[in-house]
Specification:
InterPro entries: HemK-like (IPR004556), N5-glutamine_MTase (IPR050320), SAM-dependent_MTases_sf (IPR029063), Small_mtfrase_dom (IPR007848)
Distance between the termini: 41 Å
Radius of gyration: 21 Å
Order of helices and strands: HHHHHEEHEHEHEEHHHEHHEEHE
Bound molecules: S-adenosylmethionine
EC number: 2.1.1.297
Helix content: 40-55%
CATH topology of the largest domain: Rossmann fold
Strand content: 15-25%
Number of domains: 2
CATH architecture of the largest domain: 3-Layer(aba) Sandwich
Structural class: alpha/beta
CATH class of the largest domain: Alpha Beta
Largest sheet: 8 strands, mixed
GO molecular function: peptide chain release factor N(5)-glutamine methyltransferase activity
Keywords: Methyltransferase, S-adenosyl-L-methionine, Transferase
Low-confidence stretches: none
Protein name: peptide chain release factor N(5)-glutamine methyltransferase
Strand order of the largest sheet: 5-4-3-6-7-9-8-10
């Protein structure tokens, strides 16, 4: 990363003495000013504002300092130890919510829920649905329940390991499963993540690869009519597609699509049953992404 020029640091210092602390993460004076405004809006005590700027200079995440992150129409509480919701997830979750029926009841189960951002948004935008969430982390489990209480959006949260596919973990079938699993392979973690993520966000939420997509095919597809899974790259989409198309029964009963994000990166693999579902998934997810099978 390019070093910040002394002339820029001096200019920032002249504007506000706290700005040079924010420049290493914000990179430009304008962005640093915006971030300082956000901190000052949340925190009135000047000493505390300075402490926050010092923490930011060490790449401590802004959302942990401010306490929340906007996620669609919701302000989701964030805390250390639980992944901060990303714009990529917000983008597809808002798009999905907009496609779900307003006038029908249905069940949605969010796996690897973290803050609970995805099912809380779906339930908020489609109040007739019943929302369930699972995470194995005790911190995430508590935070998702807290977000549900604070936002007054009902969500039933369970603390379980989703990779253990026992009937205790998977007690019921649902209409839709959503999941943003840990999907950054260990081999690319150091290269592909920012210092802030590496230092302060939980590895449990980040490191993973095909095991969660294998678990989708082996365990969760038989318990749902449709699924929407976030991915980190195309190989994870293709893994699911290959597993489905190489299985005669799954290939006949399921359709699979991929969706890119607005940065044109592969972001979602999704699928739905061709028949026997309570909702018409073919019409709901018709224009969600590109059908591949
Ligand atoms: C990428 S984060 C997603 C959090 C949230 N859904 C979001 O989009 O911001 C992945 C989450 O999966 C959880 N997790 C990791 N392994 C798990 C497992 N085996 N069973 C259940 N949850 C798991 C982590 O605790 C973390 O909260």
């Amino acid at each position: 990363m390019a070093r910040i020029k002394p002339s820029v640091l001096k200019k920032a210092w002249q504007v506000n003495r706290l700005l040079p602390l924010l420049l290493p993460v914000c990179r430009t004076i304008e962005v640093a000013q915006q971030e300082l405004r956000w901190i000052q809006e949340e925190i009135s005590d000047k000493k505390r504002v300075r402490q926050c700027c010092l923490l930011r200079s060490r790449h401590y995440p802004l959302q942990y300092l401010l306490g929340t992150q906007p996620f669609g129409p919701l302000d989701v509480i964030c805390q250390p130890g639980v992944l901060i919701p990303r714009w990529e997830t917000e983008e597809w979750a808002v798009s999905l919510a907009g496609k779900l029926p307003r006038d029908r009841t249905f069940d949605v189960m969010d796996l690897c829920t973290g803050t609970g951002c995805i099912p809380l948004l779906l339930k908020y935008m489609r109040p007739k649905c019943s929302a369930f969430a699972i995470d194995c982390s005790p911190l995430a489990y508590k935070l998702a329940a807290r977000n549900s209480d604070m936002l007054r959006v009902p969500l039933k949260v369970t603390q379980k390991d989703i990779l253990k596919c026992s009937s205790e973990v998977v007690p019921r079938t649902v209409d839709l499963i959503t999941c943003n699993p840990p999907y950054i392979p260990r081999s690319t973690f150091t290269r592909e993540t920012t210092r802030s993520v590496k230092l302060f966000e939980p590895k449990l939420a980040l490191l993973g690869n095909t095991e969660f997509y294998a678990n989708l095919v082996d365990c969760w597809m038989s318990r749902t009519d449709a699924f929407v899974y976030e991915v980190g790259d195309l190989s994870q989409c293709q893994y699911v597609l290959e597993r489905v198309t190489s299985d005669t029964k799954l290939s006949k009963n399921w359709r699979i699509g991929f969706k890119h994000d607005s940065n044109d990166q592969p972001r979602i693999v999704y699928g739905f049953r061709t028949s026997g579902s309570r909702l018409n998934w073919a019409s709901i997810l018709e224009e969600f992404g590109d059908m591949k099978h």
